[in-house]
Amino acid sequence: MSVPTEEYLAAARTFPTGVTVVATRYRDGFQAKTVSAFTSLSLDPLLVGVAIGRHSPMVWAARASGVLSVNVLRHDQRGVADYFAAPAQRRELPAPVGLLRQGTGAPVLGDCLSWFDCRVTSVVPGGDHALILGRVVAVRSGEGRPLVHQGGTYRALSDEQRNLS
pTM for the complete prediction? Predict the structure, then answer.
């Protein structure tokens, strides 16, 4: 029995996810992409994972550089999410947020809710996506509300929603 793609997508869109920008070094610059498929995988060792379309330049750039950052966006960073969701050749410069290099040399967003600086440990095929696993070597976290994606649109959590017990 096969599940129709439309039904699968309708069900998947009901699940809210955080919004991140994943970035890696690329030659003398960087590759960066908005990604909502991010997860914390392990505490020992510290591992995270991101799923990216297998044909995305981000996959081979991360594999080649061996480093990756995952940057969690704040509720007020929809413009940043849209900017990095667009194909690189259609982005206007300058970027709406600055990029800094951290311990691995992976670029991190200078202004975001939190970031994870990682060394790529493996790239695993997953259908039409690749799962990039990274060992976390540095982190930074801040205060604020995350940007959330659900039902095909960005959303923000209210303080009332965050404090439900």
Answer: 0.90
